[in-house]
Amino acid sequence: MKLFYGEIMDHGVIINDEEQQHIVKVLRMRDGEDIHVTDGKGKLASGKLVIEGKKAGIEVFEIKESLPEFTPKLHIAIAPTKNIDRIEFFVEKAVEMGISEISIIVTEKTERKNINIDKIRKQAVAASKQSLRFHFPVINDTVKLTDFLKNTDPDHTFVAHCHENLERIDLKNIPQLKQLTFLIGPEGDFSEKEIAFLADNKVKAVSLGNQRLRTETAGVFVAAWNYYNMI
C-alpha cells in the first residue's frame, strides 16, 4: 500500500502539497496507479492517482471512516536529550509501535531547551505513513514538568526513574488500562526534588529492569511494552 497524507472531506480529497511534490518529483508515480490517502484522524480514501502537470490528485473509489485506534493509548512525556538525533530516533520508533501522544518536557537537568517541534511532527507523520497508521499521534509543544502535571490523571500516570533506594513497581505489574501516561527523565535522571514532587502528585514510580537505560532507550522500551499489550 502506498499511503499519503491529505484532507478527506464530503466533497473530495485533497492530497497535502508536500505529498504531491513527493509523488510527482521524487517517486515519479504514474497516472492511474493505486493510491491511498489518510487524514491521520481515522479516515482512509482509496482510489487511482490522477496526475495533472505538477499536481497530484485522487479519483476516489472508497472512503473508510472511523477506523479503530490502538488500545491502550500511550502518552509518553520525555525529556529531550542533548543530542537531538536520539529523541528523533525515539519518536520514529515509538510512532511505528502505535504511541498515541508525545510530550517534550523540560526538567531541572534538561540541557537542551530549544526543540524544533515542527520537525518532530513531520517525522511523526512520516513514520505513521511508513507503518500504515490511520491515526497520527499528537505531538505537543514543549512544556515544563510542573505544568505538564497539571493536566494529568495520577491514576493513569507513571514515572520511570533510576533511584533504586525508592519504591518502584515492576513494569509487568502495572494493571491493564485503556490509557497510560509515562514520564521519562533526562540524562542524569529526574532530580530527587522532582521525584518527591511527582510522588506528592500521586504519580507512581516504575522500574524498567535491572539495566540503566538511556533516555531514548527507556522511551522505546515502554512503547514496545505497550505495543506487545495492544489489542
Q: How does this structure look, described?
A:
The chain has helices at 17-26, 84-96, 117-130, 145-148, 192-200, 215-229; strands at residues 3-9, 12-15, 34-38, 44-52, 55-64, 73-78, 101-106, 138-139, 143-144, 157-160, 169-170, 179-184, 204-207. Strands 6, 7, 8, 9, 10, 11, 12 and 13 form an 8-stranded parallel sheet that branches. The chain has a 5-stranded mixed sheet with strand order 2-1-3-4-5, with helices on both faces. Helix 2 (84-96) packs parallel to helix 3 and helix 2 (84-96) packs parallel to helix 6 (215-229). Strand 6 (73-78), helix 2 and strand 7 form a beta-alpha-beta unit. The model has no long low-confidence stretch (mean pLDDT 94). It is built from 6 helices and 13 strands. It is of the alpha/beta class and 231 residues long. 28% of the residues lie in helices and 29% in strands.
What is the average per-residue confidence, as pLDDT, rounded to a whole number?
94
Determine the N-to-C terminus distance.
Answer: 23 Å
Which word captures the global form? elongated
Which percent band covers the strand fraction? 25-35%
Multimerization status: single chain
User: Low-confidence parts, pLDDT < 50 over ≥5 residues?
Assistant: none
What's the number of extended β-strand segments? 13
SSE order, one letter for each helix or strand:
EEHEEEEHEHEEHEEEHEH
Largest sheet: 8 strands, parallel
SS content category: alpha/beta
What is the overall number of helices?
A: 6
* Helical amount: 25-40%
Q: Indicate the radius of gyration in whole angstroms.
A: 20 Å
